[in-house]
Each structure stands twice: as structure tokens, then as C-alpha cells.
Amino acid sequence: MHSQNPILEGRPITLTLNSSNVSTASDADQPIIKIAGRSSLKGQVAISGAKNAALVIMAGALLCSEDCRLRNVPSLVDVGTMGQILSAVGVDLKRDGSVIDINARELTHSEAPYELVSQLRASFFIIGPLLARLGIAKVPLPGGCAIGARPVDLHVQGLRAMGAHVQIDHGIVEAYVTGSDRRLKGAKIYLDYPSVGATETLMMAAVLADGETIIDNAAQEPEVIDLANFCRAMGAKIEGAGTKKLVISGVSHLHSVDYSIIPDRIEAGTFLLAAAITGSELTLAPVIPDHLTAVIAKLRKTGSTIVAEDNQVIRIIPGQEILPTDIETLPYPGFPTDMQAPFMSLLTLSKGNSLITETVFENRLHHVAELIRMGADIRMKGNTAIVSGVPILSGAPVRATDLRAGAALVLAALAAEGETTISDLQHLDRGYERIDLKLKDLGARIERIEPLPESENSSAKDK
Ligand SMILES: CC(=O)N[C@H]1[C@@H](OP(=O)(O)OP(=O)(O)OC[C@H]2O[C@@H](n3ccc(=O)[nH]c3=O)[C@H](O)[C@@H]2O)O[C@H](CO)[C@@H](O)[C@@H]1O
Ligand SMILES: C=C(OP(=O)(O)O)C(=O)O
């Protein structure tokens, strides 16, 4: 990594440390975000490159033994960790702002370190390209948001269908291919569920395999299409990206590429909700409005007017009041699970009752308890939240239990009366580039407070 700039390195950003804001010794142990609510927002917000596309495309760069230049890569902790994982298997990686140069000419290791892989889900996806390049890969079971069991059985079954021997021992997935060329074989694979990660792992494995691979019931998410476009730009033969059926004809070699990552539809959706919940007009760019069809449709149901311009700008004009609406999360093009928690924050302030059903992950409603702490009226029935709108939320100390839960709390805090303190920011830092600074630029009263240095911290505790 070149830069001394924490933003470029994907590290959290130290803002002002105003000791008068540090109210308790426990606050001083970890970064927190403080938000004084009920400011209106105004202006234009720049949407960063998509986290979930950037991470898997970084993994995909392992397929290529020539130079890969990636542009529009967001500055996130997850991107930094993925960079470290690539370095650990021998990749030469240089970063300059939002541009990352990756050269995977020589892969020196087939094993990814547990300490890094355990931090993010997308790290596991390197198993496909590592196997394709080396005929062997050892990757620990991954981390990521704690929103369900998140098994990798579909990845493993698909790799086995392509001729890999796969076993899981002591938490490490070990896969290898036998035969003189140690090359995976094309196969016909049906996914029981259109898993984003399994589709991506198997697509990458198939790109350099011997023969044709068909993935049926494939995920259709924009990030899957972006990965396919990246691989095609290197010479891969992939048809059907964005449909339920992918056909991949293996090639023996990929060439260098210069590729720009798509804008982050989840970050864009979060800022649309920031506008709606604060009753503020905002403009977002760059965005691909088609990637937000389900979110825009639901926002319109809640009373907002949304105008897409030039296929890369979205303007939102919130209605006088927030109307209730029901939501069920589904694989793309359905309503995205990653927007479920943020959208719930909006509906806590609606004029009526909304049902929000989470179907993609079995345990992705931890934010409910935190929103209730802020005065929301939510009851749970199985995986459905029954949200009865209240006239106002009130600021409170809350914990960001996972990435999108953190975004939901930031949104609730922007609308709430009084001050909200959000802790456990490690989740938020994984997925939002400078969310506090972007909101501040729009007029939010938001401050990130970094922990005191160790020495000052212990003397503060002694007092
Ligand atoms: C890094 C990344 O891109 N993360 C995204 C990706 O996660 P991820 O790729 O992990 O999500 P999946 O689409 O694989 O998971 C969806 C469902 O399938 C299940 N499943 C998945 C794989 C498997 O082998 N077996 C299995 O049962 C999961 O437990 C979950 O219940 O897509 C999710 C669904 O849009 C998003 O919320 C995440 O932000
Ligand atoms: C769940 C998410 O990320 P991950 O899959 O990396 O845990 C997310 O981006 O909302």
C-alpha cells in the first residue's frame, strides 16, 4: 500500500477528538459515532464503488497471470483485508486512491490465513480462482456479518461436481484437483438456492476449467454481472450473466485488463433512505438506477418522488409524510436483504403498520432491539417484524450489531430527537466509505470520535 492516507488505506478516519464529547471511560475504549438528530440534509452525494463487486473482482484477479488494474475501488476495511489476503498468497498489489493494481503472475501460497479470512465473507470466494490456478486451495471457513449460519455447502458441491476433492477439517476447507494437468472439469451444476457467493466461486472456477460449465438457478445480482464482465474483459467466455443460467466455456489463459467497478447500489439505497427519513431532497451520482428498481418502487410506495436522470443520477424528493408498506427480502431482482434493516428505520416513522419479512438470512433482525431502544414500536413474529409507525424516535446509546444494522441506526439517529451514540463501528467500517463525512457534507450533525491513545485512556480510567 502506497498511501499514508487512512481513507485510501481503508482504515477508519480519525475526526476531531473533542474530549468534552467523551462522556464515559467505556466510550473512550472504542470509536463511536455521535449524531444530533433532526437536521435536514441538502446537496449531492458521491456514491462509491460497490463493496461486494470490488471484493469478488479482487478475488477474480487471481485468475489472471498478467496485470489487472481495478478502478473505482471503495476505501473500506474489507478491501484492505482482501488486499492482505491476496498478498498472503503471493500477489503483488499496489493501491493509489481508488485504483488498485494487482499482479498475480506467481502465486506462492495456496493457503489463506485464518486471521484475515475470518474477517469477511468474500474472502472465501478465492477458493475458486486458487483451485483454477494451482489445482489446490486451503481456505478457512469465512467470517462476515453474523446474520445466519451462512454455510458454504453450495460452493463445495459445485467444486466437487467440477472434479475437485474437497474436505473440511478443523474449520479449513481443503480442495485439490488430481490428474496430470490438475485442471477442473466443466460440469452441469444446479444450485438449490441462487447463492451470490456460490455463483461467483463457481463462475471463477469454471473460467479456466477444461470444457463447458452450466450453472442453473444462478444468482442474478448486479455484482455477479460485474464479475462476469470483468472476467470477459480478460478473455473469459461467459454467457447469461444476469439470468438464471450461466454458460461458461473454459479458456486456458486470461490477459491483462483495466476495469472499473460498478457504483454501490446498497450505499446509494442507504442515502436515498437518509433523504426520505429526514424529509430532505438529495441527488446521488454515479448510480445505475436499474440496480435499485425494487428499492425505488418501495420508496415510491412510502410517498417519495424519485427521478432518474441520464441513467447515472437519482434525485429524491420525499413526500409530506411517510406511508407504510410491506417488504419481503428476496434474491435479485427482489428486494435486497442488505436494504432490509435501513428500510426498517424509515418505516418506524410511517403513518401506519408495515410487515417486513426477511427470507434470505435466518438471523438478520438484530437491529430490531436497537431500534426499539430508540422508541420504535416493533413486534417480532418468526422472521417477520411488525412495524407500527411512531411520530418520533428518540436518541439513545445503541450498538451496530452488523453492517446494515449500523446503517439502519445511523438513519434512525438522523431523524431522532436528541443525541444518539452508535458503538461497534467495526461493522460499519467494513462496508461504508466515509459515511460520517459524506453525511456531514450534506448537513448532518455527526461526529466520529476515535478512542484515546492507550496512555491517556488508562489515566482517564484511573480518575
Ligand atoms: C460479500 C458479499 O457479496 N456478500 C453478499 C452476498 O453474501 P453471500 O454470498 O454470503 O450470500 P448468499 O447469496 O450466498 O446467501 C444467501 C442464502 O443462501 C445460503 N447459502 C449460501 C451459500 C451456501 O453454500 N449455502 C447456503 O445455504 C445462506 O446461508 C443464505 O441464507 O449476498 C448476500 C445476499 O444478497 C448479501 O446479503 C451479502 O451482502
Ligand atoms: C452482509 C454483508 O456483507 P458480508 O457478506 O461481507 O457479511 C453486507 O454487505 O450487507
Number of helices: 15
**Could you say how many structural domains there are in total?**
2
The rounded distance between the terminal residues' Cα atoms is: 40 Å
Heteromolecules bound? uridine-diphosphate-N-acetylglucosamine, phosphoenolpyruvate
Quote the average pLDDT. Answer: 92
The gyration radius over C-alpha positions equals 22 Å
Uncertain parts:
1-25
Q: Would you tell me which CATH topology of the largest domain applies?
A: UDP-n-acetylglucosamine1-carboxyvinyl-transferase, Chain
How much of the residues is beta strand, in percent? 15-25%
Shape call = globular
Adjacency order of strands in the biggest sheet: 21-22-1-23
Helix content: 25-40%
CATH class type of the largest domain? Alpha Beta
Query: Could you give the count of β-strands?
Result: 23
Q: How would a crystallographer describe the biggest sheet?
A: 4 strands, mixed
Structural class: alpha+beta
The name of the CATH superfamily of the largest domain reads Enolpyruvate transferase domain
Overall CATH architecture of the largest domain: Alpha-beta prism
